[in-house]
Amino acid sequence: MKITQEEVAHVAMLARLELSAKEKEEIAGQLNDILEYVDKLNRLDTTDVPPTMHVLPLVNVFREDEPRPCLPREEVLANAPEVEDGMFRIPPVIE
Amino acid sequence: MSQYETVIGLEVHVELATKTKIFCSCPTDFGSAPNTNVCPVCLAMPGTLPVLNKKAVEYAIKAALALNCPIPSYAKFDRKNYFYPDLPKAYQISQYDLPLAVNGYLEIECDGVKRRIGINRVHLEEDAGKLVHSEFGDYSLADYNRGGVPLIEIVTEPDLRSPVEAKAFLEKLKSIMLYTGVSDVKMEEGSLRCDANISLRPAGADYFGVRTEIKNMNSFRAVQRGLEYEEQRHLEILSAGGELVQETRRWDEDKGVTYAMRSKEEAEDYRYFPDPDLVPVIVDEAWVEEIRKSLPEMPEERRQRYMAEWGLSSYDAEVITASKAMADFFEAVMADYHDAKTAANWMMGEIAKHLNAAGIEINESRLTPAHLLELLKLVDEGTISGKIAKTVFAEVFASGKMPAEIVKEKGLVQITDEDAIAAIVDRVIKENPKPVTDYREGKAKALGFLVGQVMKLSRGKANPELANRLLRERLDSQQD
Ligand SMILES: [Zn+2]
Questions:
Q1: Which residues 6+ apart lie within 8 Å of B231 measured at CB?
Q2: In this predicted model, which residue has the larger pLDDT, A42 or B287?
Q3: How many structural domains comprise chain A?
Q4: How many angstroms separate the alpha carbon of residue B466 from the centre of ligand 1?
Q5: Which three-class secondary structure state does DSSP give residue B201?
Q6: What is the pLDDT of residues B92-124, one digit of tens each?
Q7: In angstroms, rounded to a whole number, what is the distance separating the alpha carbons of residues A43 and A57?
Q8: Phi, psi values for residue B198, rounded to 5°
């Protein structure tokens, strides 16, 4: 499996990253190294090994449905670049 | 439509009625001031961790059981990655390949035909925040109160065959969600939202046509209208030998049309992966059984019981059990009343009429079973006539006052005193010589007019049977 520079560009777009041509080439190489390493696992027989969904030896960690105090609104909006009517003012979003 | 068959599938999001959000302890109250039901977790502050609300899992399983889904023993949460400002983490916690429930069904009845609609999956996820757009579209505002409210997404198989069936499915689904109590299902508050997929194919074909997805339908009626519009649009394109484009379209309620949403340059690619912050959920048989036991009697079982226990017709029982609140009200009345048919007629008649006009559910009205019981008894005892009872009911509905009090206040007690009615009867006979002669000459219809006059003079309070009898006695004997 070889990662092409087009694939790197696609993934970068999805992650909203701007990469130069040089960076794309560099990252394609790095991703290929990683995939090659992971590919070694495919050579193992894992027929009887259950897939690892999680690395923690824990299941069913829950909270009870009990309300707790929220963050005061001044704190919520403290770092917002712009605020209007108690809301975060952001660049326009069009559907 | 004979040449083509319509194929519809629905994706329904239902907000669960938990007190707190799915991964943090913020309240889920609707209508709070913007950004007051938020905390570092649901605002995606760095270093915070989600902890799953057990009640949300139980509600989701409860809903899934009511939709006849088997519950797999292992479920996990995944991240659905996309950038949109209503999503502060830049991913939504959802479930991808191992949802809480799969392979259920819901039976619907449409035009007397029963059909089983497959449920592909029921999964748990978090809701996004709300965006408000400025008047001139030069900026938007973000309120994260709704972000993190638990949702279940219910995906049907492409088993629906008409827009009317789609609406019937949603009504049945709403009824079931209300019965189980997992959601209050208020479409106007966005606690039930529906997207639809529709395609047409030659009748009897075993493949699917090109489908379009419709969004922004904000009522059951809008779902039906949006689908009808798309069905017609597909039909016209296909009949003209044209080709459809697979796309997402937005329903415009005011104009009654759908239009294509601006298509993204690249196909949606959510890059789902297991959320490392949330450990798997193991649902063992004992837990499922415990939740199953908490399920109330469902509409179908109740319908059967109303027919067997109280002799209601299948239709009446169906109408009353469609809403849990109505059925609960009816049962409370029947605990103290003998005549199911009369009570049912009131439920489906006056009560339904006033509720529809007010646009509310019975549990949101001032009406209690005690109101209806007292009113029924006033009629049964002859204190008021059935006609007056409707007037009294309107007042009960508006004010929440007890019927007996209204009857007393407004002097609506039925006149059952023979002498009092006889005096009115004599006056009517005296003042209406023409109809009296007509009646005596065999025109039976004239009697109805004379009874009407008695009722009018008594301002509706004369006992109609008594008025009828006294009139007839006098007209038949005094041949003056
Ligand atoms: Zn929170």
A1: B6, B162, B163, B198, B200
A2: B287
A3: 1
A4: 69
A5: strand
A6: 999 999 999 999 999 998 888 889 999 999 999
A7: 26
A8: -140, 140
- B45: tokens are 């502050």
Render pLDDT for B350-370 as a digit per residue (tens, 0 to 9): 999 999 998 888 988 999 999
Nearest residue of A to residue B130, measured between CA atoms = A87
ipTM of the complex: 0.90
Q: Which amino acid is at B412?
A: L
* CA–CA separation, B413 and B404 (whole Å): 9
Give B84's contacts in chain A (Cβ within 8 Å): 93
DSSP state of B81: E
**Stated pTM of the model:** 0.81
Residues in chain B closer than 8 A to A53 (CB atoms): 76, 98, 274, 280
The region, left, alpha or beta by phi > 0 then psi within -120 to 50, assigned to residue B473 is alpha
Residue with tokens 């340059």: B265
Ligand 1 centre distance from Cα of residue B16 (Å): 16
**In chain B, what are the domains?**
4-287 (no CATH), 296-410 (no CATH), 418-477 (1.10.10.410)
pLDDT of residue B132: 92
B295 and B62 in contact (C-beta within 8 Å)? yes
- Residue A18: inside a domain: yes
Q: Is position A16 within any domain?
A: yes
> Average pLDDT in the B235-262 region?
92
Is B140 close to A58, i.e. CB distance below 8 A?
no
B26-55: pLDDT as tens digits: 999 988 999 999 999 999 999 999 999 999
Q: Which two tokens stand for residue B210?
A: 């090109």
pLDDT band, very low/low/confident/very high, at B441 (cuts 50, 70, 90)? confident
Q: Is A12 domain-assigned?
A: yes
Residue A16: domain span: 5-42
B271 and A CB contact within 8 Å: yes
pLDDT of residue B419: 83
For chain A, how many residues are written? Answer: 95
Cα-Cα-Cα-Cα torsion B135, B141, B143, B149, nearest 10 degrees, comes to 80
Compute the nearest-CA separation of B180 from chain A (Å). Answer: 18
